[in-house]
Design goal:
Elements lengths: L1 E5 L2 E7 L3 E3 L8 E3 L3 H4 L4 E8 L9 H15 L6 E4 L5 E5 L4 E8 L36 E7 L5 E8 L5 H15 L39 H7 L2 E8 L1 H12 L9 H16 L7 E9 L17 E9 H6 L2 H14 L2 H14 L8 E6 L17 E4 L7 E6 L7 E8 H10 L3
Helix pairs in contact: 2-3, 5-6, 6-8, 6-10
GO molecular function: acyltransferase activity, transferring groups other than amino-acyl groups
InterPro entries: CAT-like_dom_sf, Plant_Fungal_Acyltransferase
Protein name: Omega-hydroxypalmitate O-feruloyl transferase-like
Length: 433
């Protein structure tokens, strides 16, 4: 029983014993290869999806979701296995068929009593995702853990804990949409393409580019002290089309750029504001790290339904002084160069770099941008219509900044980040454009 105080109201969730959902049919057994792009992001991502229908309650929600899971695991059978270490010392899936972990739960309230369910909140929303007790490392956490929580109002939530090494955001949305389709008795629109060996490293590895995403940046601004001494505040900021339009005008007013996208201008604006809010020394190097979807950038492009990580990290490094002294167009220009960098040869070089060095991207002195604003959260349907809300439970790391879609069919973007209290106060002021 988990109690969370929400003002005077005590939110509690009663969890049942975890069970295992097996694939509905016999599936392949044995070791399943994970590519080097999968190896780099083996972190647990917790997401939550809330459903509520005017026309039907949640009486059979658990059964429908569970049966759908059993069916989708036939296609995505690696999720029914367990992670282990290969003879090469890399992550690999042992397809044992032992199933995904599944937990039924009940909340002591209706959804409307929970407050703002759109805002990530590890304390409250964390109760809606099952955590594997006593797990000492990633290998002891099943790659897929599901909790279905019923609310007193007739709504329910699906809390998902998934290892990022299994799927990237696009793959995860295809998985969720497919799960909804089979739960409703429909054929799968996009069957998963499971062969990740198409992204194997070359033999011998061929490193043709500098991979600064792995660079360790020396911290000279003493921001670690701020993080230790002050409370971390998490806030979200809404950028509607008007605000985004103003930013684009500002970025292009000096004539340096001929065009820029919403992502590029928002990334540049946020990167500068975060440096300013943390009061970085002019000589402090700062690295912007973000994922580029490589699906169409590889030659040939990755097949439709590629179930794995098709993203590659690209980066830009500059001193805080130069970033802040120069106009917004400079920051946006750096981001455009970083995106251009992500060609087929660069991405294959990154795969080979990991093969040769086993290096992990360093997050020292880094801002890591994660874009969920283009993911198809709103098309998931288990028979209760699209989610009334969906998104992450929490931010995975301190330097992560998340771009989230605000609502279906709007061009607005919600920005979510955490900063030490004093830095957040400055950041908030900088957002008043």
């Amino acid at each position: 029983m988990a109690d969370v105080s929400n003002g005077t109201f005590e939110f509690s969730v009663s969890q049942g014993e975890p069970t295992r959902v097996l694939p509905a049919e016999e599936t392949e057994k044995g070791l399943y290869y994970l590519s080097n792009l999968d190896q780099n992001i083996a972190v647990i991502v917790r997401t939550i999806y809330f459903f509520k229908s005017e026309s039907k309650g949640n009486e059979d929600a658990v059964e429908v979701v569970k049966n759908g899971l059993s069916k989708i695991l036939v296609y995505h059978y690696p999720f029914a296995g367990r992670l282990t270490i290969s003879s090469e010392g890399k992550l690999i899936v042992d397809c044992t068929g032992e199933g995904a972990v599944f937990v039924e739960a009940e909340a002591n309230c209706g959804l409307e009593e929970m407050g703002d369910i759109k805002k990530p909140d590890p304390v409250t929303l964390g109760k809606l995702v099952y955590e594997t007790p006593g797990a000492q490392n990633l290998l002891e956490i099943p790659p897929l853990v599901i909790q279905v929580t019923k609310f007193k109002c007739g709504g329910f939530s699906i809390g998902m804990s998934m290892n990022h090494c299994m799927l990237d955001g696009i793959g995860a949305m295809e998985f969720m949409n497919g799960w909804g389709e089979v739960a409703r008795g429909l054929p799968l629109k996009i069957p998963p393409f499971l062969d990740r060996s198409i992204l194997k490293a070359r033999n011998p590895p061929l490193i043709e580019f500098s991979h600064h995403e792995f660079d360790e940046i020396e911290e000279i601004s003493n921001t670690a002290k701020l993080y230790e001494e002050e409370e971390m505040l998490y806030k979200s900021f809404l950028f509607d089309p008007d605000k985004l339009g103003q930013l684009k005008e500002k970025a292009m007013e000096d004539g340096v750029l001929s065009k820029c996208t919403t992502f590029q201008v928002l990334a540049g604006f946020i990167w500068r504001a975060r440096c300013q809010a943390l009061n970085l020394l002019p000589g402090q190097q700062t690295k912007l790290l973000f994922a580029v979807d490589g699906r169409q950038r590889f030659t040939p492009p990755l097949p439709e339904g590629y179930a794995g990580n098709g993203i590659v990290l690209t980066n830009s490094i500059v001193t805080a002084g130069e970033l802040l002294e120069k106009p917004l167009s400079f920051a946006v220009g750096l981001i455009q160069q970083a995106i251009k960098l992500a060609t087929d040869s660069y991405m294959r070089s990154a795969i080979d770099y990991f093969e040769a060095t086993r290096a992990r991207p360093s997050l020292a002195g880094t801002v890591l941008l994660t874009t969920w604003s283009k993911l198809s959260f709103y098309t998931i349907d288990f028979g209760w219509g699209e989610p009334i809300s969906s998104g992450p439970v929490a931010l995975p790391e301190k330097p992560v900044i998340l771009f989230l879609p605000q609502q279906k069919d709007t061009k607005s973007i919600s920005l979510l980040l955490g900063l030490p209290a004093s830095a957040m106060n400055i950041f908030e002021e900088l957002m008043q454009i």
